[in-house]
Protein 1
Amino acid sequence: RDTRTIWLTYRNATRKQRSPLNIGSQTQTIPLSAFSSKKTVFESAVLYLKDRERKNFHDIGILLQRDERNIWATYHRAKKKAAKQHE
């Protein structure tokens, strides 16, 4: 990834979330290699957790602190983009 993209994503995240994330007792790691594609960071995380870790949308939503419907939409949008690229 371009370092400018990473910096911009980090800056936007710190503006949106001023306090550190509370991960509680759950620890889930995602390897950096999952973020190497041109997908957004959020799409990359959702795809990794769904396809590689076999988590359901509800569990991913809890981990990422998002509604499971948002996770579902993001997953399917990323899958459509990937299918379109391979055509």
Note: The mean pLDDT is 87.
Protein 2
Amino acid sequence: YMLFSNPNALVTTLAISGILTFICALLAMSSPKTSLICGTLYCLFEGCTIGVISLACSAVVEGAVTMALLSTIAVFAVCACLYVFNVVKVTSKFTRFLLMFAVGFILSQFIFLIISLFTGLEYSIGMITLVSLISVFLATLYLFFDMENIKQVVEGGLPKEYEWTASFGLAFTLIWLYVEILRLIIILFARDN
């Protein structure tokens, strides 16, 4: 309520927590030794960021946050089952495909951003929906990668800081998946209304 009564506080909270989240994520990814502290700080600041985003989205579409949260849990549960029962195996081919797919997707978004800056071209609702669907798919694939990473760390008997790095990777992917699903829900409800 306090944030909605003061829109400047909402924007300021989102900006500060977003910047701190980004910095902590970069530091946590840079070295296993920083994952414990920076990964924990990332989760705290990201919690604030996601809280503000979820608050705003729930004001726009009632029930969107609950649907996104339940969908994220469902996707994670399905991925965990598929991984545990060896239906999906994370091989070197899978990892190469995931890397090429992620780099290609990020590069295409960057190129479109540059083009739109010079031409004024904007995404249509259909394109935004497609980008969100691809992002959800990519985040889902990264869940398998994170599970394999956790398995390798545990079975390999690596030092504790690598466990924090693997945990950070899973937390990062789950939050990314939640945000993408939430964005997709908002887009779909916006189309209907």
Note: The two ends are 25 Å apart (CA to CA).
Protein 3
Amino acid sequence: MKVAQCYPVECEKFPQHLVDLLKNHATTLDPIMRNCFVKALILMRNKNLIPAIDLLELFFQLLSCPDKNLRSFLQTHIINDIKNMNAKHKDMKLNSVCEKLSYNFKH
């Protein structure tokens, strides 16, 4: 994950593979493996290899996972990520997407 930006062609589809794996098998994966995948996606997000909105959408879906540690970690990350993206200037598109995602999660 830390060298993915050095191999853009080879790693082009890797983030999407992890996202698909978590979307389809999050509840059946081993909790340690699930956490590793989530942290790998965060590293790739920090290197701009995956769009923030795509990752936030996945993380809102994973909040329904029965893993309490994962939910706590995701909640903290979601809040901090949104704060950091809005620190310099308000990203209205991101904020409206997050609003919709949180509304869908609550209902």
Note: The two ends are 34 Å apart (CA to CA).
Protein 4
Amino acid sequence: MPRFYCPAPLQTGLALSLPPGAARHVQVLRMQPGDVITLFNGEGGEFEATVTRMGRSDVDVEVGMHHPVEREAPCQVHFLAGITANERMDWLVEKATELGAASITPVMAERSVLKLKGERADKKLAHWQGVAVAAAEQCGRNRVTRIDNACTLAQWLAQHPVSAGSGVRLVLSLSEGTRPLAEAVQGQMNVTLLSGPEGGLSPAEEALALSAGFVPVTLGPRVLRAETAPLAVLAALALR
């Protein structure tokens, strides 16, 4: 059954018009009145909905039964992603959403090729949020990965001081003294994961992370690409 994100209050018996993106998708699928779809708004569970009218550019539905199903990973991961080149960042957001990341903060690292500010930053963040929405629709998640505002590592640390109950902080590192992922996590259910762009974090950025309580972790002897390494961590945490 086709699934669509509908960021609006949903309840059984409600009649509503689908948001433009979902409406276009329904029309592309050539659905007709009487066809049933699935709607979710990111607040928990999903709803059946029946198409009641197909307009030229809009689609009306009636919301049906609610199903309190969740498909979230057992470990909540907040991902600080060093911004990679355009296509790789899109791919990273898509796959991180599929693997259950709770949030993604694009980090403007010293070695990031893509620099964001002003209107360009707003457009990129909206684009990445759209990528996350599409990935959630496809993979069956009923909650959408939140894309936070892009910032430097120093800015993020200033806004998120270490506090009790905030879980463990991990940074992917090739330096000496790293710990295996499983050992560093040790059953934690709330993880903040920091990963650099192509070329990794600079020595100064890694030192800053370590001073703020991040634990350096390794995924083994091979050097993985910037878009591969954090996904390996997410997969390990989601599938344990």
Note: The two ends are 28 Å apart (CA to CA).
